[in-house]
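The passage that follows is intended for readers who have already worked through the single-chain material. We present the inputs for a multi-component assembly, then the predicted structure in tokenized form, and finally a short commentary. You are encouraged to pause after the input and sketch how you expect the pieces to fit together before reading on.
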Amino acid sequence: MAQNTIKGTAYVLGDKINTDYIIPADRLTWDPSIPEERLKIGSYALEGLPDEIKKKQPFITDGERAAIADGTAKAKYNILIGGKGFGCGSSREHAANALGAAGIEIVVAKGYARIFFENCVATGELLPATSREDITDKFETGDNVEVDLDNLKVYNRTKGGEFEIEPLGYILPMVKAGGLFAYARQKGLIGPRPKE
Amino acid sequence: MSGQNIVEKIIGRHLIKGKAEPGEEAVISVDVLLTHDVCGPPAIGFFKKEFGENAKVFDKEKVVIIPDHYIFTKDEKSARNVDVLREFVKEQGIVHFYDKDSPNYAGVCHVALPEKGHVLPGSVIIGTDSHTCSHGALGTFSMGVGNTTGAYVMGAGHIIINTPESIKFRFDKEFPEYVMGKDVILQVIGDIGTGGADFKNMEFCGEAISRLSLEGRVSTCNMAIEAGGNGIIAPDEKTKEYLLTRTKLSKSELDAKIEYLFSDPDAKYLSEHIYDASKLEPVAAQPHSPGNVDKVRNINAKLDSVYIGSCTGGKKEDFLAAAKILHSAGKEVAIPLYVVPATREVVTFMETQTLDGKSLKTIFEDAGANMDSFYEPSCAACLGGPIDTYGRINDEPSHVRASTTNRNFEKRMGSGNIYLVSPLTAAASALTGKLTDPRGFMR
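Having made your guess, compare it with the prediction:
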């Protein structure tokens, strides 16, 4: 993750956003290792959310889907705000792929489930940042947000307010390297990537 | 220096670099990498991208591929994904592949893996599926990972982990006969919450756990991930007996091959939870969270269907328990009862195991269960899946179901409201049409 400040528009969710919500099982027939299919998965990011959340403000509207699937557009939001247990449930890495392909750069949540958390970092799709307090009631979908990773702060530029995020902890070296394979190569655990 | 718990010992025995101490990075060798038809193709794609088109897997005997998710569907992409697995198996010379449409087909990977003798105590098992934690039931360090990490393990033969802390759950005395491994783990998740063991190991121990059957232990460890953790139970004589029937190895060969590891008496735990097992009751996780747990007798819920299946609740003992309820009641179910054996071995067991001379299969048929998918063991509707998946609840948001599966997130089984229960509770509930404590039906 090269940039240390991420600015953009927030999509705000609550506690226990599981990976079935992020990408439902009937979308897992696409293979995210194939770039075109990864984009298709991205076009259905957060499709599994309960209807009452989607009705209020869908993450991706039906009208926006095609452009995300063909890679000519991203979702309106690039920052997710969540509560506790973000990414719980299934190990499907398609969840990290879906959010990344849709244009999410960072999640700021109160806590994570391990597999999703590690998938975000291993793939380099997005950064899972942990807020010190639950900040889901301090933000609304559509707010302008700035996340400063050097100073461990997240700012609500629409409503005002600054909030702390935790140091990245054990994942920091892998985040800095840009993913699992890059990190393992830095450490000399595997050989260089073969030339194509 | 204080003692070590079983997980720290297993990590220590597999250590290549780093430290087997909580919070420390450890690079550990992997004994089995498990994958299936949903996560196998992307893992293979990332493997080739990172290690090269001509790269070889770290060990063709240790990469085990068990297609099980989207098998009995007309969905074209699902068929394509199985073809990707076939091609890879051929190219790599992978030894253990349980292919769809072949005599080797097994069914749900987490039931098949120990059935086929791939799970040895003290080993490290990594799978591209969150319920890989099931295999902790045989005293392994097992955990689910994503496709990128799966691809990494496939090529490197090791994994980089952050050594987890452990939480101990000790069950004294004995579970009543109406309490199954499923009730045990639901009770625990209800007590600590769905994030109660995030990033941690959950070690289950005590007299009641040692009395629990191997399959009961699998059900318990299977849903550790619903609390955010990995489950583990130290191996004992029951584990050794099970291995004798599952591997081609003799007792002396097993003893020579396996180092049976146990937690030291002074091992460190983040916390300890002590239960009187005899006081546990049948419980259910109510919609829409595995942590929304209450005693079955406290819940008033009218049901539209019941589903028995999956790695959590579709094993031999699960169907035996449910069949006993149906058989002793001697009447037909009040609502549709979907039956999905987890593996072919479970199918055969149901055809051959009898109660008073009647096979379990006949008992389910006589009770009016829906047997349309009886010969199609797979994950089926446990995770929804393609629209034509057997047992899937298609666009019926008000549908209410009791299920022996592991997750009741909204829309997880397609749509509807899911109560997660034991097979005993599922069978009793199918007979009455409402969520029912099985005690009234037990002889």
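Commentary: The first helix of chain B runs from residue 6 to 13. Residues 6-275 of chain B form a domain with the Aconitase; domain 3 fold (CATH 3.30.499.10). How closely did your sketch match?
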